[in-house]
Predict the 3D structure of the following.
Amino acid sequence: MEPMDNIELAKQLKCPSGDDGVRVGNRMYASNSNMIYKTIDRLNIKAGMHILELGFGNGRHLPYLFSKEKSLSYEGIELSDVMLSEAAEFNKELIKESKVKLSLGNDTGRMDFEDKSFDGFFSINTIYFWEEPNKYFQDIYRILRSEGQLTLSYIQKDFALKQAFATEEVFHFHKTEWLIRLLTNIGFYNIEQWQYMENTTNKLGQAVVRPFVILKATKL
């Protein structure tokens, strides 16, 4: 992959496109796999749950999700048609078995699902692209059933701001304390957070020690 300038890379990280998008998607999965698996481990998965993910990337984590519980029903929304194609090909057997449904979405904060449709929602490394997290949180609250859980994972703001590709034209970083306040005001409760340090590579392929947070909240 030819070197990209920071703004081009930032746009690819938000919505991978073209041949470069396939390679960026593979790099994101390699960089984020530990965070992804740690997040899935925190989902409190139970038999028969209906789960929604926003931003599934190339979808290579879905076999791990289904290793936790085979009776899950999963739906995923993605901005990138390239990632949708990659994930659909990789998970074609799960799709054929009607366990997985993948679709394109938008970045408005509104999701095209009926009220109280899901038992759980999760999203990994996407909140930086939400200009107004409150809109997303309100809609997630709407589509969750009572006692449904929202789970978010993201890199801590102080670390993220040091990354050259984290341009303000594309990225929006938020403090955990502020996100918790938004969630509480909407009506979520039992808000928990876990903080981790991991050895990984950043999106430029450089070795880093990266702090990240998993934040989980429950709908009343």
Remarks:
- The CA atoms of residues 31 and 202 lie 6 Å apart.
- The chain is about 35% helix and 30% strand.
